[in-house]
Every structure is written in structure tokens, then in C-alpha cells.
Amino acid sequence: MKPAAPDYALIEQARQRQPEAFRKLFEIYQTPVYNFVARMIGQPQDAEDVVQEVFVKLYHKLATLREVRYFTTWMFSIAKNEAINYARKHRRRKWQALDDSAAHAEHEAVPAQEHNPERVAAHRELDQVLQKALEAVPEINRAAFILGVLEEYSYKEVAAMLGCSENNVKSRVFRARAVISEKLGPYLKAAN
Amino acid sequence: MNCTEIKLILSARLEGEATASQWHWAEEHMAACRHCAQIWQCFQSSTGLFKTQLPQLAPAEDLWHKISARLEQTQEPAQAIRFRAGFRDWMESFFPQTPRALDLVRFGFAVLLLALIGLPFIFNRAPKETVATNSAVERDTTLVAATLPHAPAPPKIEKTAAGTGLELQMANYLEQTRVVLLEVKNSGGEDEALDWHGIRQSSQRLLEQTVMLKADLKQEQAAVLQNLVEQLELMLFDLANVADDAQREEVEMLRAAIRQNDLLIKIEIVDLKALDRAAESRPPTKRRTLKKTII
Questions:
Q1: Contact A173/B12, CB-based, under 8 Å?
Q2: Burial of B36: CB neighbours in 10 Å, binned 0-12, 13-18, 19+
Q3: A21, A37, B53, B97 - which has most CB atoms within 10 Å?
Q4: In this structure, which CATH number among 1.20.1250.20, 1.20.1440.230, 3.30.230.10, 1.10.10.10 belongs to the domain A116-192?
Q5: In whole angstroms, what is the distance from residue A66 CA to residue B32 CA?
Q6: At how many degrees (to 10) do helices B165-186 and B196-220 cross?
Q7: Which sign does the torsion angle of CA B109, A70, B74, A53 carry?
Q8: Helix orientation angle between A19-41 and A44-61, rounded to the nearest 10 degrees
Q9: Are the CB atoms for B198 and B147 separated by under 8 Å?
Q10: Quick one: angle between helices B126-147 and B196-220, nearest 10?
Q11: Overall CATH class of domain A1-91
């Protein structure tokens, strides 16, 4: 989920290498960055390593950021690059279903009162189906889809993060959506 | 609008990125196109599933501790940070109105550094020069062979690292001249017409080279080679001035001159290594003068 509007004063303080300010920034952005990376690489445990890299890089390069208003864009572009680098290095590894992520889940889509075993199993199966559909999307289109659709950034913001035009983002999201719809087609028909 | 364009609009619509007019076109299109209407439903359902069913993940609670531990390990010394900040402030005091001034100074330093690194390469181009001469040799030899298609293929010039520029030039000149002379000498049949246009062109080009070569050979004190070049120059001069409708007697005279002066044999037996030996026996200052002449 897209975080609230960035606190420019806080970013400026972090740029001046104030540890407390950087920690606050981390607290604000850790969840969206972690979710983005986890969806990109499909491995929640490894996503933590990638997120570590992202924040260490952010800390060291923050002084080079000229305009604080581009902080979010810049941060996600670093996260995207790190995630793609990781995915390319570990391409041979199988995409694991996010079964283990139950422990990490902040909230479950299934309401607490409906937590019966069958319901939970069905929900996990759906998670797997969604993850596999996301896996089928090429990395660069996946990044556009996660940022534009799941993280709800505008196409303009996504364009800045991915270093491309808005029309390109539109096209990438469409391609991702087409692949996902195709993969989810049988599931959607069965559900209907 | 075709289906592909409509699908792009449908996809953008779900993020609120499609304009009202675009959506109007899409609705009109979907009313007539069942396929696009199905796609729209599919997009809506799949996006809905992602937004509602995919759990929001939370990182482990100790993630910050791991990151802060790494930051401490890779912490830049406080002195360095202070120096950088001080330098930046100092630069900004010179250019207070231009925040990009620091970049300009860095760029300036980078250009200066590159210039300092590049200067020795620019002024010490001896190896590159030899390579360039080699390619010129190949190009010219190929040109002569192309101009005179009936001429035998010239033997490949042996290019050695030790070979001087003048040696290669000389070898190239002799090969080209040999090709031209052979063409004239071997054409003897009644109905075999010589390509005088090609021969004239090649001879004129070789005559141009002769002027430079003679000067260089004189400087190198290579008397034998200089003498040979002068003999070839006379022959090439005759060939460069032959008319298209040359009489049989005139051509016969040229062939006889080639034979009598043993020009082809002299080209075959000439020792170009003498140039190398002469160059080696000379002090290095003179050698540099020769290089400049070649350029």
C-alpha cells in the first residue's frame, strides 16, 4: 500500500546523516519496500536481505539526492534494481509459494472469525495461484504492475521509478495484466 | 481505435489513468466487441483478486537491527564526512547561486584527468601509425588488383612489427608496380585488348607515390632502391601516357623496355631489409625525423 505523503523535513534530516531521522524513514518505508521486493523476487526471507541492501545503499547515497521530493521515486528505483539483480542471480531457484509468509502477514484477507482449516487452506491456495501468475510476468512488466497496481503509485511516478515514459508504463502494466488474466483465467472461470 | 488500443485504455482505467473521452471510446467499442468486453471483465476480476486476496507482508521486527549493524560496519569516518561537507560549503561559497557548481567543478577535474591520461597516447602514436600504414598498404594493393582484373594476385606483403613505415610503403609500391608491369608484359594475343584506362590510372597513382618515396630513400641513403625507383618512374611515366588506341608497335616497345631493363627481376630480388638495417644503424633522433616525413 502506498505510504502517506513523504515528510520532506525528515528526508532532509536523513540526508544530513542524522541516524534518528533515517530510522524514522525506514519505519515509514520498510513495509512498502519489503512488499515490493517480496513480490518481485517471490521469496520473503530473501526479500529481507534485498531490503537490507536497499536501505544501506539509501543511507550511503542519500547525500547525492538533489531534490528531496524525488525521494520515493529514487528509493523504489533502487529497490527495483536490487530486486531485479537478485532475481537474475537466483533465477534457477524455484519460486516458492508464500506459505511461510503467513508468519509475516500483517493482516490476512480472511476475517478472523472465518479461520477454519478449509478456509485457510483455500486462501493459501489462492495466494499460490496469484504468486504463480505474478511469477509468469517478465520482471520489468512485473515491477510496473506491482508499483502501479498493487502499490497504487501513479503512472507518472512509476515512469520515474522505472526510468521510462508514462505510455511505456501503461503498456507494461497492460502486458502484465494480460499475462496475469491468462494465468488466472481457469481459476476465475471456476470461481464464477 | 482497434482492440489493442482499447485494451490499453481498459488496463489504465483500472488505475484511474484513462481519460473520460478514452473511456467513452472504450465503452462504445465494448458494446460492439464481445472479446474486449470479456477482457475487461477478466481484468477487473484479476485485479480485484490481487488487491483483496494478496496479503500485505510485514518484514521481520529485527530488520532495523540488521541494517543498523551493517551501517555501523560500513560507516564512513566522521573526519571524511566533515571534509566532504566542508569542501562542499567552500565550493558553494564561490558559487552560491548555482547549486550545480560542484558538478561543474567535478566535471572539469574529470576532463583534466582524462586529458592528462590521454596526452601520452596522443603524442606517442608509433604503433598505431604502423597499423594505419598496413591498412593503407592493403587498401592500395586491393585497389590495383581491382583496377587490373587480369593481373596476377600480388603476393601478400609480410608485415612485421620491426618493419618500418618506409619499408612497408616501399613493399607496397613495388607490388603495385609489379602488377602493372606484368599486366603489360603478359598481354600478347592478337585479340586481347589491354585495359589502358586502368593501367594509366594505376601508373599515375604510383607516380605520385614515387615523388615521396624518392625523397625518403634519399634521406635514408638507400642508393640501390633509389635507383630502382627512378627506373620504375620512367617506365610508369610511359605507361601513364599511353593512349587508348595505342598502336601494336608502341605496346611492343613498352614490353621490350620492361624486359630489357629487367624491371620485374629487379623488383623480385630487391632487398628491403636493407632499409631496416640502415634505420637501426642510425641514431634515434634521425629516425624520428623520418617518421615525421612519413606522416
A1: yes
A2: buried
A3: A37
A4: 1.10.10.10
A5: 51
A6: 150
A7: negative
A8: 140
A9: yes
A10: 150
A11: mainly alpha
Q: With an 8 Å Cβ cutoff, is A107 touching chain B? A: yes
The answer to whether B135 contacts chain A (CB < 8 Å) is: no
Cell 591520461 identifies what position?
Answer: B117
CA A16 centroid distance within chain:
27
For B184-241, what is each residue's pLDDT tens digit? 887 765 545 677 888 888 888 888 888 888 888 887 777 888 888 888 888 888 888 7
**Which amino acid is located at B249 in the chain?**
E
C-alpha cell recorded at residue B41: 471483465
Nearest chain A CA: its distance from B123 CA (Å): 38
Give burial (CB, 10 Å; 0-12/13-18/19+) of B115: exposed
B2-60 pLDDT per residue, tens: 888 888 888 888 888 888 888 888 888 888 888 888 888 888 888 888 888 787 888 88
Residue B12 and residue A178: Cβ atoms within 8 Å?
no
ipTM of the prediction: 0.73
SS3 A25: helix
> CATH 1.10.10.10: which residues of chain A?
116-192
Residue range(s) occupied by CATH 1.10.1740.10 in chain A: 1-91
Task: Burial-class residue A46 by CB neighbours within 10 Å (0-12, 13-18, 19+).
Answer: middle
